[in-house]
Amino acid sequence: MLASSDLDYLDPGRTYYQMGVVVAQATQRPLYRFAPDDVSKRLPDMAASAPQVSADGRTVTVHLRHGVKFSPPVNREVTSADVKYAFDRIFSANVAAPYSSYFRQLEGAPATPTKGVKSVSGVTTPDKYTVVFKLKPNSAPAFVGALVLPVSAPVPEEYAKPFDEKTSSTYNEHVVATGPYMVKNDASGKVTGYAPGKRIELVRNPNWSKATDSRPAFLDAVDIRTDATDTTIASLQVLAGKGKVLGQPPPPTILKRISTEPAGRVSQTVDTGGYRFVPLNTTLKPFDDVNVRKAVSAVYDRESVLLARGGRSAGPIATHFLGPGIPGFEEAGGLKGPGADYLKAPGGDPALAAEYMRKAGYADGKYHGKQTFLLAGANDPQSKTIAEITQDQLARLGFRTRLKFVAADALFTTWCSTPAKRVLACASSLAWLKDFPDPEPMLRPVFHGDAIAPTNNTNYSQLDDPAVNRAMDAAAATSGAARGTAWGAIDRQLVDLAPAVPIDWDVATLIHSPDVEGVASMYFDGWDLSYTALRAK
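Predicted structure:
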C-alpha cells in the first residue's frame, strides 16, 4: 500500500483516523464489525452473538467467542477481563482515547480523564466469556452501535498496564493483536515493523485461527509505505505495478484517467455517507457572531474545492451535514437541504455575504480588524490547493490569514484537535466519516459542547450551543423512525448556526493494480486488508 500519510496510533484504544482504522481492522478484533459491502447489520467478531439489551435499556450483555488468542508474546486466550480492561483504559488521561465520549454513559465512568487506569464499575465480568455493561438512562442505541469501534478490541492487562502507567501510554510501541495480522515485533513484544512516517509492516498473526473468524485473510503480508507523499506518482506506480493499492483516493488527474476503465478492474468506489467541511472556530472574535459565519458560508466557492478534488466524482455538493444513507438525511432536507440562502450558491454569493457582514455590524460588508488568523492545512498538493481556496474566500471578506502547512497526521493530532493552538479553520477541509452508520456519531462528536477537549478534540469549531446540546441529549434515546426525525431536526439547527461550511458528501474512489482483487469497506471507506487478495493468473 502506497500512502501519503502515516497513521495516528497502532493502539486500538487511541487510533481514530482512517489509516489507523485500516490497520486496526486487520490486526484487532472489536466486539462487532461489518462485512465490507454491508453496513446495515453488525456481525459478531470478538463477540459470539448479538448483544442482549434489557427491557429498560440499562443493561447490555455480550458473550465472547471462545478460542481467540493474543499474538506473541502474550499467546493466551482472550477472556472477558481483557475486554473490561480495554474499556477501563479509555478513560485514562495516560491513554487519551478519542472515542471515550461514546462510552461516558457507562455507570461509574469518570467525568474527567483519570490519572492511570481505574476500574469502571459499569463494566463487569460474571464469567470468563461474559461482559456486562451497565448504562445510564437513554443511552443504549448509541452504546451498542459503538461496539464496532476499534476501542472495543481486547487488551491484556498484565501485559499492557506497565505501558499504560506512563504519563503517555507506550502500549502503542508494544501493541499485540487478535486479528489475522499483526505489526511485526520482536520476542519481547516491542514493535519493529513500524517506522513513523515511513513504513508499517503487517505479518501473519501465528495465533490467529480461521476456525474462530469469518474473514478469509488471503494475504501473507502487507507492506504499507506511508512516505508516498506525491499521490500522482504513487497512483501511476499502482496502476502500472503488481500487488499494489493506493492508501487514499487518487488526485483528479488520475480519476479522469481511470474513468474509462471497466468497473472493478483498477478501482473501487465507496459512497461513504460522510461529509467534508471547513470548521470555523466559534470562540474567536468575530467568528463568535453567527452572521459572520453565515457570510463565510455565503461567499465560499465550494465548486472550486470540488474541482480540486476531482469534480463531481468526488461527491455531490452538500447543503447540510448528514449524508445520503444516514438516518436523518431526508428529514434534514435530502439533497436540497433545509433551504438556507447562504448555501444556495455553490460557487459563492459575494453580495449575500456582504449583507451578512453588514448584519454583523460591518457597514461596508468587510472586516477591517488588524488581527491575522491562523489557518492549518495538510501539505499534500490537493490539500494545499483547497487551503489556498479557503484563504482566498476569507480574504474576500477582509480577513487576513496565515497558512501553516503540516503533514496530514499532524494536522489532526496536533493542530486542528488542539484548541490552545487557536486555529481559525482546518483550511484543507476535513472529512467526517461514519464511526458507525447512525446520525449520532455523525453530529455529536463534531458539534456537541461536551466533545470539546484540550487534546484529541473533535469539535473543531468548538460550538457549545445549549439548545443543540439539549436536543442531542434527548435524541440519543430515540430509535427507529423517531431517531431519523430527531437528528434531522438537529442537522437543521446546525445549518442555522453555521459553525462550519459544508463542502460535499464524500464519495471515495480507491485504486489498485490490475492483479489485485481490491475489496473496499463501506464501513471505514478504505481497503479491507482481511478480504483484499491477489488475483490468480
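Summary: The chain is about 25% helix and 20% strand.
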